[in-house]
Amino acid sequence: MKLNLLIKELNAIEIIGNTDIDIKGVNIDSRLIEDGHMFIAVKGTQADGHTYIKTAIEKGAKAILCEVLPQDIDPNVTYIKIENTESNVGQVATTFYGNPSQKLHLVGVTGTNGKTTIATTLYNLFRQMGHHAGLLSTVVNCIDGKDIHTEHTTPDPITLNCLLKQMADAGCEYVFMEVSSHSIVQNRIGGLQFAGGLFTNITRDHLDYHKTFENYLKAKKQFFDQLPADAFAITNIDDKNGMVMVQNTKAEVKTYSMLKTADFKAKLIECHFEGMYLNINGEDVGVQFIGKFNVSNLLAVYGAAVMLGKPAHDVLVALSMMKPVSGRFESMRSPSGYTAIVDYAHTPDALENVLNAIHEVLNNKEGQIITVCGAGGNRDKGKRPLMAREAVRQSDKVIITSDNPRFEEPQDIINDMMAGLDDQQKRKVITIVDRREAIRTACMLAQKGDVILIAGKGHEDYQDVKGVKHHFDDKEEVAKCF
C-alpha cells in the first residue's frame, strides 16, 4: 500500500520525506520489521518504542510513525509525527489490511466473567448452523475450525486485523471476539466495525492495571459508547451495572435476565452434573452446561444469534447440541464415585458462581465440597483474601495452593489469601504450595458423593513461574489421581 494512502486518516503534525512509497507491512515490534515496513513507535507500559527506531531502520523500515522525531534523520526514511501513536495503531492496521471487519459480522463480548464461554459457544453454534465463522478468545483463535494459538485475550491491533483479514479471505461470515478492558483502554480495537456487543457482568478484576473499580467500569462502558447506530447492544440486567453500560450507546439495546422482565428471559427448571433443563422465551430446552451463571451465558448466546437473524427455535435446537468450553465447569467422574470439576474461576465472583452451581446440583444431598484454589502472582492483590473467604464460605474443606505465581513467591501469595480468614475459618484450610500435591491431596480426601472444585486455571496447560511456563494441566493431574 502507498504510504500516503496509509496515513491519509491521521492528523500528521509533521512529515519528513517522501510519502509516495510502497509499504509492505506495519509493525509495533521492531523485531518483526522487514524491508519496506512501517514501524510505529508506541510509548507502551513496558517499553518505549521510540528507543527502537534505529533498530527498525537497520532492519529495513522505510517509514516511521512516531510522537517524537529522532535526532538523527535518515534521508532514505520517511518520518510521520503525530500526537498519539497508541490511539492510531488500530486505524493504521485497519487501513493496511483493507478494513476486514467491514466484510464480516463482528460481535464483541465484554465483562468480567463469561466472555470465553459466550464467544466460543456462539462460534460453535454458527458453525453448527452451517456458517463459516471465526473466533478470537482467551483460549484460542479459530478460523473456521483451524486453531491458531493466542497469548492475550485481545491481540494487538496489527495481529488482530491480520487475523480478521485471514478470516474474511477464508469466507467467514461471522466473527465472535472477547473484548478485554485492556484492549479497550489501549485502543487495540480502534478502527474495527462491530455488528454487535454483549455485556456479561462486572465485578472486581484487573485493579492492578485500572487502579479503581470505576476506571474498570468506564473501560467496559467505552466499548458500548463507541458502537454504531446500526449495531446491537445486548446487556445483562441481572447485573446492577447492566443498564449503565448501554446508557450512552447509539446501538439498538436488548436485555437478558433470569430475574426480571427482559427481551431474552430464561428459567432454570432442573440441574444435574450432566446438564440442565431450561425454559428460554417460552420454549423448553435441554443443555449440556451446568449452573445459573451458564444460564445467563446461554441467554446472551441466544440473544446474539436472534439479533443476527437466526430463527429462535433453530437456535435452541443448536444450543441443545453445544458442549461446554474447555476448562469451564468441566466435570469429571471418578471410578470411586466422587466428582472433580475444573474451572477457570480466578476472581471472587467467579468462584462464588461456580460454588453456587455445585450447591444447586447437590441440593442438600450428602457429599462434601473440597475446593483447591490459589491466586495469580503480580496481579490484583486485593482479591486474594476475598477469594479465600469465598472458598471457605461455600466449601467443607479448602486447599490453598499455587496458581501462576509469576515473579512472586508462592508462599507469599498463600499468606495474602490466608490473611483474609479468621481462626475459625482457618480450621477448614490446609495450604500446599505444590499444586500437583494439592490436587492429589484433594482426591485422597474425597469420598463417594463428594465434589472437588479445582479453580483458577481451567483450560491453561502451564504454570507460570519466574517467567517460564512449565507444562501443567489440572485435568491431566485429576486423571492421574483417578
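That was protein one. Protein two is written in the same sequence-then-structure order:
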Amino acid sequence: MMSKQTLSSKITIVGLVILLAFLADWKYKQWLSEKLIQKQKLDLQQEADVLQQKNNELSQSLQYLNSDTFKESVARQQLNLKKPGEQVYTFVDAPQDSQALTSGPQNSTNNAKKWLDYFFAN
C-alpha cells in the first residue's frame, strides 16, 4: 500500500507541476498581449494628439482665410481693388541692362575697344 500512495503522490505532484507550468505559460502570454496592447494604445494616442494639433492648425488657417482682413488683402493684391477715395501707388523695378549684368574679360575688352575707337577712329 505504501508504494501505491507514493506512486499516486508522485503522479499527483508531476500533474500539478505540469498544470502549474501550463498556467504560468498562459499567464506569460497574457502579460505579453497586455504589454503589446498598451504599446499600441500609446502609439494611437500619440497619433491622435498629432492629428488634433494639425486639426487645430487647419481650423486656425480656415478662420484666417474667412476673415475680412484676408479677403481685403486678396482683393488688394490679386484683384487690384482699392477703397473709395484711396490713392494707390505702384512702383516698378527699373529694367536691368543685359550688358551690365555680364562680367569678366569680355566686358573689359568691349570697354577697351570703345576707348580705342573713341580716340583713334575717324
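The two ends are 145 Å apart (CA to CA). Keep this in mind for the problem set.
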